[in-house]
Amino acid sequence: MLCEMNIHHHSTPEAIKDLLLFALPPPFNHSVTVEDMDIMITINPEVNDIFVIFDKLQRIISDMLIEATDIYGSFTIFLLTEKASRSFHVDI
């Protein structure tokens, strides 16, 4: 399954990539890439309910972005798999 996170922001995507690589637990930190202004996380979760993953990942990302004082902006984050999608908004 593919979990894709698109972040539109006013800071550098590389800074957010570095933050995600450091702060996200496995397997979410195993494949973080940057293309233009989008950050993608590719995962293959071995759980039955993908929304459990979405909820957990949303809480982790929201908390880490709020605590990251050098990152600012308005973020729309889209979490996608082949079967489901979810988005949430973060203002910093």
Would you write up a description of this structure?
- By secondary structure, the chain is an alpha+beta fold.
- It has one domain.
- 32% of the residues lie in helices and 27% in strands.
- The protein has helices spanning 13-23, 50-67; strands at residues 3-5, 32-35, 38-41, 74-80, 85-91.
- Strands 1-3-2 form a 3-stranded antiparallel β-sheet, with helices on one face. The chain has a two-stranded antiparallel sheet with strand order 4-5.
- The longest helix is centred in the middle third of the chain and has 18 residues, at 50-67.
> Given the C-alpha coordinates, what overall shape results?
globular
Distinct helical segment count: 2
Q: What proportion of the residues is helical, as a percent range?
A: 25-40%
- Report strand order across the widest sheet: 1-3-2
Which structural class do the helices and strands define? alpha+beta
Question: How much β-strand is present in the residues?
Answer: 25-35%
**How confident is the prediction overall: mean pLDDT?**
65
Count of distinct strands: 5
Number of structurally distinct domains: 1
Give me the Rg, rounded: 12 Å
Largest sheet features: 3 strands, antiparallel
C-alpha end-to-end distance: 29 Å
Uncertain ranges: none
Quaternary state of this entry equals single chain
Q: Spell out the helices and strands N to C.
A: EHEEHEE
